[in-house]
Structure formats: C-alpha cells, structure tokens
Design brief:
Number of domains of chain A: 1
CATH topology of chain A: Lipocalin
Order of helices and strands of chain A: HEEEEHEEEEE
CATH superfamily of chain B: Nucleic acid-binding proteins
Helix content of chain B: 25-40%
Shape of chain A: elongated
Strand content of chain B: 25-35%
Largest sheet of chain A: 8 strands, antiparallel, barrel
Radius of gyration of chain B: 21 Å
Number of helices of chain B: 3
Oligomer: heterodimer
CATH architecture of chain A: Beta Barrel
CATH architecture of chain B: Beta Barrel
Order of helices and strands of chain B: HEHHEEEEE
Number of strands of chain A: 9
Largest interface: A-B, 23 and 29 residues
Number of helices of chain A: 2
CATH class of chain A: Mainly Beta
CATH superfamily of chain A: Lipid/polyisoprenoid-binding, YceI-like
C-alpha cells in the first residue's frame, strides 16, 4: 500500500515539475517603430501572450493587431485598414526557439544573451526571422527582451508612393515580456 | 475681379490645409463619452468567441463593448494597465486595457465593475482596449 502512496506522490511531484517548466505572460509589451526624417510612428501592444518552455527552449508569441495603440488616431486607422488589414488578419504570431538551448536555471538570478529564431507571421505572411535576445532571471521570473527589424515589403504590405517618405521600409520591433511560472 | 482671385486661391489653400491638419490630428474616440455598441456579460462574450471565433470577430471587432464583471487581477504596464474580468473560466478572461493608471485607480480585486472598451479580439483572453469605467 505504502508503495502505491509513494508512487502516487512521485507522480504528483513529476506533474508539478512538468507544469512548472513553462513560463508565460498575458501582458507582454510589443512595440513597433517606423522612423523617417519626416515622421516618427510608434505603436504599442501591452496584452501580448508569450509562452517559453524551459525544458526545450521553445518560444511562442501571439498578439492582436487591433490591440496596438498609437498617439494619433489616424495612424492607428491607417495601420489597421491600409497596411495590416487587421479585419482579415487579426493576429500576428511568432513560433520559434532559443538556438543551442541550454536549460535556464530559474533559481539563479542573472542575464544571458541568446539567439532566437523561428517563424514570424504578420499580415498572413510567414517568414523566418532570427534575432539576439536577452533573458534575465530575477526571483523566479524571466524577462525576455529583444529588438529586431523587418522589411515591410517582406510581409506583403505595400506602402503607397504618396507616403513613402513618411513610412520606413524597415520597421523596428521591440519585445519586452516578463514571464511567470504557469500554475 | 482679377485682384481677388489670388485671395480666393489663398483662402482655399488655407482652408484645405486646415482640414488636412485637423484630419491628421483627429483625436481618438473616447469610450468614456461614447455610447456602447453592445452590452454583454463576460461569460456570453467568451462563449461567443469559443463557439466561432471568426463570427465573433465579425460581430465584435472594433465595437465598443460594455461588460460588467468581477475584477480577478490588476496589472500595471508602463503608464497604463489592465483589469482582468472573470468569465467563470480559469484559462480565459476579459482583459480590459486602460491608457492611464488613474482611470482605474480606485478599483480593487474582487470589485464589480462596468467597463467600456473597443474589442480587439481573442488570444487566450478577449482583449478590450482604450477602456473606461
């Protein structure tokens, strides 16, 4: 009998440790920047989802295009209607992994520079991307930071000739997410 | 007559410029002053999304949604933050984003609140943006 109890206890413990392998957030901050001498445009989304599997280094992001907030209402309107077509493509996602992954120790505070690569889907178009990122562990939480640039044209987004000086061909995307253990 | 033509052109250019400037700077629609397009409970909204996401998107995206629910969590991100409303489902809630912390300063976890915001869709949770109480 006691073997059974111990067995059940071990099973419970292993389930616990498996579930603790994933860190996630629902309030990840993703921002994008289009800088030209004529106009600076930035949009922020503060309710992005991110899941990191500590066992494998797999990483996933998802964000709602309509959740991006701009200073000017007109920019937000153009972003949604003319460029991202967010009625047709309401989500942007990233599915990838930390390259050459060695397991992150969440019990030790510290900073690690890593490379992340995977598939980025924007405007219904999926492309491979790769970027440097910083993983910071502090008190059991994991901070994931990255900045990278993409070419708007790669994702099938046309910039009309009329505004080509106001909108950058290459936009910067910034990721800032604080991941907590999935309970 | 000839003399006033340049003035008319100048006036047209000025008015045109002013209209363009106002369009460029047009302000966001504030949910606080706007009437809600749809009043719905958190659970009904989630049910609609779980049943058929595309149909729910067609019905709710960009609309001002008014929901009344219990605050499950409060999160501050930068200058703004969000209230998470309970739907009765542990995995999926309604996340209501506010542009400033002041907008929900008096709210505590467990409070019943009525929130208006623009529906931006569903990831794990349904997200309302530019919310007001």
């Amino acid at each position: 009998m006691y073997k059974l109890v111990i067995g059940a206890f071990m099973l419970l413990l292993s389930i616990q440790s498996v579930s603790a392998q994933k860190h996630f957030t629902k309030t990840g901050h993703i921002s994008f920047y289009s800088d030209t001498p004529l106009e600076k445009i930035e949009g922020h989304n503060k309710s992005s989802n991110c899941v990191l599997d500590l066992a494998t280094g797999k990483l996933e992001f998802a964000t709602l295009v309509k959740g991006f907030q701009f200073e000017k209402a007109l920019m937000q309107e153009h972003f949604n209607e003319n460029y991202m077509e967010s009625d047709k493509f309401p989500k942007a996602t990233f599915k990838g992994q930390i390259d050459n992954y060695t397991k992150i120790d969440v019990t030790k505070n510290g900073k690690t520079n890593v490379k992340v690569s995977g598939d980025l889907t924007i405007h219904g178009v999926t492309k491979k991307v790769s970027t440097d990122a910083i993983i910071t562990v502090s008190n059991g939480k994991i901070d994931a930071d990255a900045t990278f640039s993409i070419l708007v044209a790669d994702y099938g987004i046309d910039i009309p000739a009329l505004v080509k000086d106001q909108i950058a061909k290459s936009v910067k995307i910034k990721i800032d997410a604080t991941l907590e253990p999935l309970k | 007559m000839r003399r006033i033509i340049p003035y008319i052109i100048l006036a047209a250019v000025l008015i045109g410029g002013l209209i363009a400037y106002n369009m460029y700077n047009k302000s966001h629609v504030e949910t606080k002053d706007a009437t809600s397009d749809i009043v719905i409970s958190p659970k009904e909204l989630l049910d609609a999304y779980e049943l058929d996401e595309a149909a729910a998107d067609a019905k709710y995206l960009d609309k001002i949604i008014e929901v009344k629910g219990t605050v499950k969590a409060i999160n501050q991100v930068d200058k703004g933050g969000s209230l998470t409303l309970d739907t009765g489902n542990d995995m999926s809630s309604i996340i209501c984003e506010f542009e400033t912390v002041d907008a929900y300063a008096n709210v505590k976890v467990g409070d019943q609140v009525t929130v208006k915001g623009f529906c931006s869709g569903k990831l794990m949770d349904i997200v309302l943006v530019r919310c007001s109480l």
